Amino acid sequence: MIYGYTLGLLHHLVSWLLYPVMLGLAVCLLCLLWEFGILLSEKYNGLRVLQQSTINEFEQYAAKRLERVDLLARSGPILGLMGTLIPLGPGLAALSSGNIEQLATAMTVAFDTTVLGLLIGLFGYIFGRIRRRWYEVTLLEIETREYDEAAINA
């Protein structure tokens, strides 16, 4: 009796997680679009402005930006996997009762969340790699500038 009740409660709890997972994927997608805008801004304007900052200021800025895209690169696939596994339980239950339409709906949600999560992870990774390369070049330019200024002042 308790065994069946516990499994039923667990099933309902997990099924309620699908909505927060889908909301999380939507938020990640919006954040990814936001990061793409920042990436374009840095490419065409922002990095030249940041070259005038100090090494510590730039390192703090770079760490903040890289943390966000790294979080997207990791959380997107995790949320996609959760969005895959959660509807499979009801889908398999529907298959056992012969409800093919409910199984098809569950499989569609499962595959869509997987693809969206992987897409978020892929672009988060790409944005992170591009930024790391740009930030290394910019940091080298700042260090060269500060070294030259220190040599002139000495």
Automatic annotation (TrEMBL):
Keywords: Cell membrane, Membrane, Protein transport, Transmembrane, Transmembrane helix, Transport. The chain crosses the membrane at residues 16-40, 78-97, 103-127. It is a multi-pass membrane protein. Residues 51-143 form the MotA/TolQ/ExbB proton channel domain. It is found in: Cell membrane; Membrane. Pfam families: MotA_ExbB. The keyword Protein transport applies. It comes from the Bacteria. Belongs to the exbB/tolQ family. PANTHER family: PROTEIN TOLQ (PTHR30625), TOL-PAL SYSTEM PROTEIN TOLQ (PTHR30625:SF3). This is MotA/TolQ/ExbB proton channel family protein. It comes from Vibrio olivae. The lineage of its organism: Bacteria, Pseudomonadati, Pseudomonadota, Gammaproteobacteria, Vibrionales.
